[in-house]
């Protein structure tokens, strides 16, 4: 039903796009490249690469809601159709993009970052002890690729390289600026990746326990860390089974771990239960930010690097 509604929206809005685009340019006086990005990490990468240019960058998902529940509004579809370039992740949460692009004007370029990383994508994992959704437990299903690609700094470097190349194709006049900004930013990403690797080397454990969804598969693989979690990264479940709680609390005791992790905007209910079910009730809860839901204020005042730097400090504590 949602797909049919989107298709109707797109067909109608396509007729309005050329007029809307002209009206928008007339009212704003903005004639730079127009880029629409779906999620915050992509928005911030583009913002870094475009620094010093007159680029108009739009972030769609900025109302604080979770990306897994996002559906575009009519205004969002107009913004995409009026853009020169649309950059998105391309995972299960972006299924709506297919219908929007079907009706898009020929002038719109689109960059899917999961296509960029197609040889390096990881399957969404169902680990031992997880409370899996019913379809995973009882039905045959095709493995979904994990869409949280931005949580790997290696992936971030590859994605920003592709973004810079695509921007250069759309705007040859600023190709030199994009390349220079990309090179500087890649250096910062590489430096942060080295800091993460050092934190692992200095840590006293190589395993983390998440009493929550787990979107950090790419980061854990990069760092060769082990993990146990309540749910897979894209799970819609909110209640962990009794078996999962006992399993996670047992791992805390078995491995003598002093910390339990959750992700941003999550309640600590499951973590509290896991800790209370373990032998040591004094364990604390740490929060890693997966950047799956941001507000406009956060987008204006934080960056991908600042969030990942804060995550590094949290992880350092969690590994000791």
What does this protein look like?
The protein is of the alpha/beta class and 320 residues long. The protein has a domain at 204-288: Rossmann fold. The chain has helices spanning 2-28, 40-49, 74-81, 96-102, 113-116, 134-138, 153-170, 175-202, 217-223, 242-255, 269-276, 296-301, 304-318, and strands spanning 34-37, 56-59, 85-88, 109-112, 207-214, 226-232, 259-263, 284-288. It has a four-stranded parallel sheet. β7, α11 (269-276) and β8 form a beta-alpha-beta unit. It is globular. Residues 1-30 and 135-141 have low confidence and may be disordered.
Strand order of the largest sheet: 2-1-3-4
Q: How would a textbook summarize the main sheet?
A: 4 strands, parallel
On the 0 to 100 scale, the average pLDDT is 89
CATH architecture of the domain at 204-288, by name, is 3-Layer(aba) Sandwich
Share of helix among residues? 40-55%
CATH domain fold name of the domain at 204-288: Rossmann fold
Write down the CATH class of the domain at 204-288.
Alpha Beta
Percent strand equals 5-15%
Spatial separation of the terminal alpha carbons: 49 Å
CATH superfamily of the domain at 204-288: Nitrogenase molybdenum iron protein domain
- CA-based gyration radius: 21 Å
Number of strands: 8
Helix-strand sequence: HEHEHEHEHHHHEHEHEHEHH
